[in-house]
Amino acid sequence: MEALDTLLLSRIQFGTNIAFHILFPTINIALCWFLVYFRLRHDAARGTPAARAWEEAYYLWTKVFALSFALGVVSGITMSFQFGTNWPGYMERVGNIAGPLLGYEVLTAFFLEATFLGIMLFGRGRVSDRVHLVATLMVAAGTTLSAFWILSLNSWMQTPAGFTVIDGRYHAQDWFAIVFNPSFPYRLAHKLLASTLTAAFLVAGLSAYQLLRGTGNAGTGLALRTGVIAAAIAAPLQIFAGDLHGLNTLQHQPAKIAAIEGIWHTERGAALTLFGIPNERERRTDYAVQLPRMASLVLAHDLDAELQGLDAFPGAHPPVAPVFWGFRVMVGMGVLMLALSWALAWRLWRRRARPAAEGPPFTRLQLRLLAAMTFSGWIATLAGWIVTEVGRQPFMIYGQLRTADLVAQHAPGTVLATLLVYLAVYAFLLVSYVLVLMYMARHPAMPTPEAPQGATAATPIGGPGWTGKEA
Amino acid sequence: MDWPTLLPLVFMAVMGLALLAYVVLDGYDLGVGVLLPFATESEKDLMVASIGPFWDANETWLVLGVGVLLVAFPLAHGVVLSALYLPVAVMLVGLILRGVSFDFRVKARAARKGMWNAFFAAGSFMAAAAQGWMLGRYLTAFVHGTWTDLFALGIAITLPTAYAMLGAGWLIMKTDGSLQEKAVRWARTLLWPMGAALVAISLATPLVSPTVFAKWFAMPQFLGLLPIPVACIAAWLAAFHVTRRPKVVQAGYGWVVFGSTVLVFVLAFLGLAYSIYPYIVIDKLTVWQAASAHESLVVIFAGVAVTLPAIVAYTVFMYRVFWGKASPLSYTAPAGPLTEES
Ligand code: HDD
Ligand code: HEM
Ligand code: HEM
């Protein structure tokens, strides 16, 4: 049991909890804006058959949203206790700074979304359409605001600024500098885009699954198209934002970049490692596939620039393998997302003028690819967080406080017991969630329109010919 | 009193009020969960529908409560939550199971509904009992011993009972017909254990805690505090009266059951607040010793002063939207063809 000490177990437990939590906010932050969009399209189409189709899309995705939101809320409540139960040293040392940021999140974001959620989900018919739309906007604004505050805190932990230390406790000196700390704008942009991509692929992927199974309705095609187009717009932006984020990290956390790139020794004209197996003991990358001098070019825009290697940070650099691999998984997903969304968007563009009667715009193979990518956003997001969070080790507050100094001294058995319970509950819920999502996709529950079939032919993406039944 | 001395007290009050709001609000929906196994299948749907729009916002008060503990009293935050490590975990697992069951029970395939209903009830009970246990541990300053543990166990049994009473009161207000009659019966039964437990706890608290004893049983204070137990007894009698008379419920006074239970909670809260002041960890840390730096308290105070009234305002608005008897919930307008969801 020596290896599984309290520190390690507490880290695994925190990592598991936040990783489970983040799966759902990642979906919800953007999905709520998708719902706003469906609503607005529905209102704009009022009186035409397309209204019905947008309503069907709205209806199914509201169900998904409600379920994901419930999971996000309960796992978030768990998060808010984790600091005190497992990292009491954290609040004792930086409570003056972390406290107000978390407090503002609760006050400005959580109450907003939680309260208006009831009206958004169940209020139609009880309030006017306009009030209902406002409630939906409040929920969307609330989820985005909560991302703002929590990421501000998370970024401050990565690139602390605006504080002074008095007797070991951190005091705020400049709140503006704290909230808008150096890495925050990049992290916020990157995370909001990650959320957009995650939701877009979820919407498109699940819709593709519906078409493959022949259980779509008129809303399915609209949702699919919306997801593909949103992904096609967000994917290149995300790669751009990620590149800027990396340059920012190089400036503030060079040890993390050295781990990402697998640069063991400080050198001029460093090679870019595409793949390889980091070997921490020998301090080298085995089987490396490298492009000579490219790392210097990519990171410093100069073929001969000197890059600091891991040897420049003795005892203060992260474990290399998770950071190295996490980064490649994330970037790999980003490239796949770009390729698929552009290919499909191109097809939609070419066929934009053709009548729906000519059949669905995507082949079965393309639908299968989309369905396979349904949860790709989750994978990229988790990989990205591992890069960020593991890359910050051994510090909790980068360069300031070490994780090991802030942990609660519980008996390892106690932490292990709760960890196992959380793992069991989360695994069960994750499986249930995915199964229920697929079940809902197979039973979208909107009855087929009473109007004659021809009446929906004018829907933007193809009406009845495109419910997937013939595909 | 100057500003730096006053602010920690203000935050103690905000935290107390957030926790009181939590206990009353999530109390009724956890209570409905505890009562779930005693209802028929169709009643279960209506019971869950009666709390569906509210539970998420209700739970947010808990987040605010620990939030203020963390924001304003970071030193106490670590002490309290590490001492309560296991019951917190039990509560969280309970809240997780309960919270997700709201959606899973109607979205998963029908054959699984029974399982999610069971999780709903079990989760509600786990959360309520764990909260009771935590309150007991907190009042006895986290000292382990036969008597203190028994005391905590007593509260761990009492709180679910009291929540169930709140839940029954809620159902009396939000339903009619046979479910309402059933809720009245539940309330009538629950009054006895709840009353007995409250008396026992009130007597036991000063016995297990010398600090509390000293504060209550000194002469002028004792008389000043007398209204608290007296009002408690009056509230209990009011609920007793109403639950015995179906006619009174029919005449529209069913809310008295809920109202008087809330009153009992408020009074118990005032009594506890008096017992604990000025400590935040009894006998160990006072409010001032545990407080954050003054400049951080000012920043968050500004936020509380601006947002709390807004939160209260839109919470009231939300309750008005769903005012009146509960009906099956739906994601679409009731006129629409789709009304099978909750
Ligand atoms: C507000 C702060 C905060 C936020 C928003 C996040 N984290 Fe974090 N994370 C921490 C604060 C933190 C921490 C408290 O600082 C931890 C706990 C122990 C540690 O080493 O850092 C940590 C550790 C930690 C670890 C373990 C790393 C290790 O110990 O080697 C993982 C895998 C994650 N986090 C993953 C995530 C994910 C997937 C997040 C997405 C939401 C996330 N973190 C957001
Ligand atoms: C340590 C970190 C975190 C803590 C303590 C935390 C805490 C919480 C809590 C308590 C809730 C429930 C609020 C309610 O009752 O409605 C919640 C929900 C939420 N959190 Fe977190 N959270 C963390 C990380 C994150 C991150 C990194 C993000 C986004 C980037 C995020 C975004 C959200 C959102 C959008 C919700 C709303 C519920 C949902 O959409 O599923 N959280 N969080
Ligand atoms: C393909 C190009 C991409 C690049 C170059 C890139 C770059 C980066 C970098 C350098 C980091 C680490 C930030 C740090 O130093 O802490 C990061 C983090 C992250 N990435 Fe990416 N990324 C890309 C694609 C994606 C995609 C497609 C997603 C998800 C859909 C994603 C989600 C995340 C998340 C959630 C984080 C952690 C949060 C943060 O620190 O912002 N990334 N990314």
From TrEMBL, chain A:
InterPro entries: Cyt-d_ubiquinol_oxidase_su_1 (IPR002585). It comes from the Bacteria. It is a multi-pass membrane protein. Pfam families: Cyt_bd_oxida_I. It is found in: Cell inner membrane; Cell membrane. Residues 448-471 are annotated as: Disordered. Residues 462-471 have a biased composition (Gly residues). The chain crosses the membrane at residues 18-38, 58-81, 101-121, 133-151, 192-212, 224-241, 323-346, 367-387, 419-440. Keywords: Cell membrane, Electron transport, Heme, Iron, Membrane, Metal-binding, Transmembrane, Transmembrane helix, Transport. Residues 451-461 have a biased composition (Low complexity). Belongs to the cytochrome ubiquinol oxidase subunit 1 family. This is Cytochrome ubiquinol oxidase subunit I. It comes from Ramlibacter pallidus.
Automatic annotation (TrEMBL), chain B:
The chain crosses the membrane at residues 6-25, 79-97, 118-139, 151-173, 185-204, 216-240, 252-277, 297-317. It comes from the Bacteria. Its main location: membrane. It is a multi-pass membrane protein. It is found in: Cell membrane. Keywords: Cell membrane, Membrane, Transmembrane, Transmembrane helix. It holds the Pfam family Cyt_bd_oxida_II. Belongs to the cytochrome ubiquinol oxidase subunit 2 family. PANTHER family: BLR3729 PROTEIN, CYTOCHROME BD2 SUBUNIT II. This is Cytochrome d ubiquinol oxidase subunit II. It comes from Ramlibacter pallidus.
